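Sync notes, pocket subgroup
Present: LS, DG
LS reminded everyone that the earlier model was apo-only. Rerun requested with benzoic acid included. Inputs:
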Amino acid sequence: MDTTEVPVTMPRIGDPAPAFTARTTQGDISFPGDYAGEWVVLFSHPADFTPVCTSEFMTFASMEGDFRRYNTRLVGLSVDGLYSHIAWLRTIQEKMVYRDLKNVEVTFPLIDDVSMDVARRYGMIMPGEATTQAVRAVFVIDPAGVVRAIVYYPLSLGRNVAELLRMVVALQTADEFGVATPADWLPGEPVIVPPPGSCGTAKERMDGEVEGVECVDWFFCTKDLPETLIEERLTRS
Ligand code: BEZ
């Protein structure tokens, strides 16, 4: 199929991640199959050799180990070509300084998407913002290849990579422990217990009869979840 015919689609949370094969700075990949059993943060950026993107890539690369501890791979994408990507990543390593980061090697794959095939499948092109560049889209994809979270930033705004890591940890915590996480939650802080399924359970909780569960009101109950337990269950060294 002519790539210009690839329809623009936008996967939603809960959808299977659209499949594609691509050339990257780490060799060819088949997505999401090559990442089965792992979490993935798939993110697009507008262009190589631009300052905001450079600061983002240096930050992503510096935190790659944190993502890997949580069984999570990073995969970047822009509509630039492979040789541009290689030249840019070499420049980043050889010359760029951002905050306390320098000599940063980007070892995660960066997709060559000159055809915009992948960007169109993932709704990364927003014509109101730019027709020839991808916006800063982020898709968190789980080990079964399902889209679990989506974040979009405009061209001018660099992402908060620590927040993306926090999202991954929160999603994994919710899955592993059957809980939800409140606003600004960080590992080690109380988590939200799912709402009661009956009036009886609501009463038990409000009467303080459920050990370890504290309720502000019947629908807002929390419990402690030690960071050590989260790390024990979710991380690998
Ligand atoms: C940047 O990464 O610096 C950038 C890219 C596209 C538009 C504006 C800024």
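DG: The CA atoms of residues 161 and 204 lie 41 Å apart.
LS: The mean pLDDT is 96.
Action: DG to write up.
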